[in-house]
Amino acid sequence: MNSSTSVVPVTIAGTGSYVPERVLTNDELAKFVDTSDEWITTRTGIKERRIAADDEFTSDMATKAAERALEQAGMAAEEVELIIVATITPDTPTPATACHVQAKLGSFSAVAFDISAACSGFLYAMKIAKRLISDGAYSNAVIIGAEKLSSVTNWEDRNTCVLFGDGAGAAVLRRSNDGEGRILATEMGTDGRHTSLLEIKGGGSACPITAANAESNLQTLSMQGREVFKLAVNAMRTAAETVIERAGLKPDDIKLIVPHQANLRIIDAIADRLSVPNEKVYVNLDKYGNTSAAAVAIALDEAHREGRFKRGDNIILVVFGAGLTWAATAIEW
Ligand code: UT7
Q: What are the tens digits of pLDDT across the range 188-217?
C-alpha cells in the first residue's frame, strides 16, 4: 500500500511508554540457559530486558503508556475517538486488547480494535490512524504498541529467549494546527513468502494447543535468526529510503532515526547503508531487548523525553518483523 499526501495534516501530540519493574539481566539468564553476557552483548547489544508480573497483562501496560501519552498531549481520556493496539500477545484471542484498554482508560466514546503486524504493528497503526484522521472520520487517535513477549517465550531456547522483553509505548495523533508538526510520509510492506522464518506455530486455528501437543512449546516464538537478519537490513533500508525521498528530505535534514530495537548490528548496518552517523540513530535495546510492536514506540517516547528532537526536526521511524512485515514513517515533529 502506498501513501499520498494527506488533505488534513496529522501531528503527534504526545508520546508515552511503560516498562515493567522486573529487570532480567543477561547474567541471570545465563544461570538457566546455555548462554553468556558476552555472547548476548556482542551478537545483539542487549544487556537486560523487563518482564511483566504474572498478573500484569498487555492491556495494563498499554493503558499506562496511553495515559502518559494523553497527559503529555493535554488530552482527557473521554476525548479519545479511536484506539488501535498493535500486539501479538493480546490479553485474550478475543475480545481485542484495545477493548480492555478502552475500559481501563475510561475512553468510552472511542472505537477500539487491535492489529497484528508483529514488530511493524505500531507503524501500521500510525498509518491507519493518520488516514482515518486526515479523511475526517476521527479527530484524534491513541495508537499503542504493547507486548508481553515473556508469555510466548520458550525459556529453554537460547536462540530466542535472550532476545525478547515486555513493555508498551503509545502516541496521541490528532489534526495538526498551524505551527505544529505533521506526519510527512508513510510506507508499509509485507512478504508472506517468509511466514515460517519467525512465528508462533500453535494456538491458532491451524494448530490448536491440545493435551497431546501441550508439551511441544508450539505456543512460543521460534525464529530462523540469520535469515531474518539479512531480510531485515534490506527491507528497513528500502522503507526508510522510500519515506525520506517521498518527504523530500536529504540525509543531512534528518535529526534522528528511531528504528525497531531487535539487534544493534542490524541498527548499525542500516545507519551505514543510509549514510547516517550512529549518533543520529536512537538505541535503547540494551535496556529492554526486542519488545516487538512496543519497541519503536518506547524508543520514540524515550528519545522525545530525552530531548533528542524538538519541534520542527525531521525524524524517521523504521521497523521490521514477522510476516514478514516492514514499515517506515517520516515525521516533521
Ligand atoms: O523483531 C523481529 C526481527 N527479528 C530480528 O531482527 C532478529 C534477527 N536476527 C538476529 O538478531 C540474529 O540472527 C540473532 C541474534 C538471533 C543470532 O545471531 P547470529 O549472529 O545470527 O547467530 P547464529 O544464529 O548464526 O548463531 C551462531 C552461533 C550458533 O552456534 P554454532 O552453530 O555456530 O556452533 C548458535 O547455536 O551462536 C549460537 N547461539 C548462542 N550461543 C550462546 C545462538 N544463540 C546463542 C545464545 N548464547 N543465546
A: 999 999 999 999 999 999 999 999 998 899
Co-location of 55 and 41 in the same domain = yes
Atom of ligand 1 nearest to the CA of 160: 16
Query: What pLDDT score was predicted for residue 179?
Result: 77
Question: What is the pLDDT, as a whole number, of residue 177?
Answer: 85
Q: Which residues line ligand 1 (CB under 6 A)?
A: 35, 39-40, 43-44, 119, 158-159, 162, 198, 225-226, 228-229, 232, 262-263, 266, 290, 320-321
**Residue 4, domain member (yes or no):** no
Beta-strand ranges (E) seen in the chain are: 10-18, 22-25, 48-51, 82-86, 111-115, 140-148, 166-175, 182-190, 198-200, 221-223, 254-259, 314-321, 325-332
Position 1 pLDDT exceeds 80: no
Neighbours of 219 (CB within 10 A): 17
- Determine the atom of ligand 1 nearest the C-alpha atom of 35: 47
Provide the number of structural domains found in the chain: 2
Q: Are residues 323 and 188 in the same domain?
A: yes
Residues 168 and 201 in one domain: no
